[in-house]
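User: quick one
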Amino acid sequence: MGTGEYLFLFRGLQWTLALSAVAFACGALSGLPIALARTSPWPVLQRLTAGYIALFQGTPLLMQLFVTYYGLALLGLSLDAWVAVAIGFTLHASAYLGEIWRGAIEAVPSGQSEAAKALNLGYASRMVDVVLPQALRISLPATIGFLVQLIKGTSLAAFVGFTELARSGSQLSNQIFKPLLVFGIVGALYFAICWPLSLYGARLERRLAGTAR
Amino acid sequence: MIVLEHVQKHFGAFQALFDINLSVRAGEKIVLCGPSGSGKSTLIRCINYLEQSEGRIIVGNVELSAGSKAVNAVRSDIGMVFQQFNLFPHLTVLQNCTLAPRRTRRLSKADAEAKARELLARVKIFDQADKYPAQLSGGQQQRVAIARALCLEPKVMLFDEPTSALDPEMVKEVLDTMVSLAEDGMTMICVTHEMGFARRIADRVIFMAQGRIVEEGPPAEFFGNPKHERTRKFLGEILPSSGTPIVPPTTPLK
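Assistant: Done. Structure below.
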């Protein structure tokens, strides 16, 4: 394998990272309202978001990608593969992050909200100033764990023709007929990104367990 | 100042409060006592709408109702101190005290901090404003919680077993703070089993059992000559031994 081949794989890696970043950022932006709706006092919002989360947790990611990719096209939206895939992963991430953060919000002791209410803080301030900062801390290990899953999950975008790292690998191995070498390198690249994140998550988890009383 | 009329509270099928009628004058200090599960905490939590109840609750000249306007008006007049302190662990002592004034009163950071430091000094928390709650002892945390509530300049303070979660040696410092607050004329409703404190500051002691007010009266009468059998039994259980004078656990304040 020469420099050209490596560059080809790195271009795929860039798309993997870009897709992961967009999916995680957009998923976080829409996951937060989902978590808030899930923990809100209004039953309608609770049930709607519970259904949304159940739908995405109960179906395979690949199927979700097919449905968004082909479904959006059927609706007459001729979107770039990149945009369609990003939408699919965003929906997926928003459901999972919504559920992770719901758990974290509920793990903040109820006395915290009560004290905030007694201080006459409104809902927005109760959440932004009191509950969410604590929930975020609690949720960090699980959130990072999900990010690792998401990065690896972006390899499924290869099935709908999006050329990220995994698809770059299969294209390359079809050209140079060295599948073991190519996929070994592809695997190592995924590992090089995911493993430090996992370590960081585990360290955070230990630190949180240490400070919690 | 506070009027409760026919207040009832249900938790599902369980009735926690039965037909509570109570009126508290401005400046009055009430001590609520009774066995656990008697509804005393539930009662004070209804007053600032942490629990929804049936019946009428009037604070100042506002009648509590489900609308956020009435709830906000009532809560802005009432400070509350909890058994578990409920300080915000991710904020410093100073930030704990300035959060609500800055959000609800729109005070500037400097004004809120000046006010907070003044009140922290009043509860004898010196040089600890920049620490986090976990770095303080239980007694210090509870005094910060009192200062935090005072920063909103409440007209009434509710105390929900403020010393029950404290190690014995820290009870006194919190009670001293409460006594000095009482002596400054604050209207107070305290759920507590500190009978020395009750004798010293209470205008009225109210005894509750099974969701009802059983007996109430000035401390001398309440402790000296309890009328109801249920009250006598309770006092017999929590006081050292009958006949022993109860020495207030608090030292005189200057």
